[in-house]
Amino acid sequence: MLQRHRLMVIVMLVSLLGTIASGCAAGETDETNPDTPNGESITVTITDPPDELEPIVVPTMPDYIPPYLGADPETGLTMTGTPTLVDFDTYRLKVSGKVDQELSLTYDDLRRMPKLTATPILECVGYFKDVATWSGASLKTILEMAEVQPGSTRVAFKGADGYEISMILENALAPENFLAYELEGKTLPVLQGFPLRVVIPSYDGSVWVKWLLEIVVE
C-alpha cells in the first residue's frame, strides 16, 4: 500500500513539473482582442527602425541558472522553460505551414521592422505575475508577409527547448502581439528567450514561447 501511495505522489510530481516546464498552465480565449489578465488594456508604442542597425553583444548562458519558478538574478523575472543556447550566427526564424511564402528571417531582418514596445503582465495563473517592458517585431506583420492561406485556423510556436503550443489564428493577428528581441531596452537575455520570445499580452505565459525557432500556420 505504501508503494502505491509513493507511485501516486511521483506521478503527481511529474505532471506538475511538466506544467511548470511549459511555462504555466495552458489557457486560451476565443475572443478576438481579449483584455489582459488584469483587465487593463495594453498600450503599445511603435517606432520606426533606425537607418543603421547597431551591432549587439550576443548574450551567453549565465553561470548560475535558477530552478523552475526561481528568480532570474539578471532580470528579476521568474524562470521557466529549459534554458537553451541558440547559435546566433546561423539563427533564422522560419515561418511555414499553410502559407504562400515561407519565410526564413535573420535576427537583423526582424530589427529592421517597425519596433513594438509594451509593458504587459506576464502571468502564469497560480504561479506568478511578472511585469517588464518588451520590444520586438509585429507578429501580424510577419504573418502577412508569409501570406497565410484561406482556411487556416491556428498558429503554432516552436521553441529551441522542444516546447510547442498553438493559438487561434485570429487572435494571433491582434496588433499588440509581437516577437520580442529586447527586454527593458536591452538585448533579450538567454534565460528570457534570446534570440526571440513570443509576447501575447492577452494570453497567459503558456503562449510566451522562449527561444523561438519556427512559426507554423495550421
Low-confidence stretches: 1-22, 25-39
Helix content: 10-25%
CATH topology: Sulfite Oxidase, Chain A, domain 2
Structural class: alpha+beta
The CATH homologous superfamily is termed Oxidoreductase, molybdopterin-binding domain
CATH class: Alpha Beta
β-strand number: 13
The largest sheet, given as strand count, sense and whether it forms a barrel, is:
6 strands, antiparallel
| Gross morphology | globular
Q: State the domain count.
A: 1
Oligomer type: single chain
- Span from first to last CA? 47 Å
Task: Summarize the structure in words.
The protein is of the alpha+beta class. The protein has a single domain, classed as Sulfite Oxidase, Chain A, domain 2 (Alpha-Beta Complex). 17% of the residues lie in helices and 26% in strands. The protein contains four helices and 13 strands. Strands 1, 4, 7, 10, 11 and 12 form a six-stranded antiparallel sheet that branches. It has a five-stranded mixed sheet with strand order 3-2-13-8-9. It has a two-stranded antiparallel ribbon with strand order 5-6. A hairpin with a 5-residue loop joins strand 2 (93-97) and strand 3. The radius of gyration is 18 Å and the shape is globular. Residues 1-22 and 25-39 have low confidence and may be disordered.
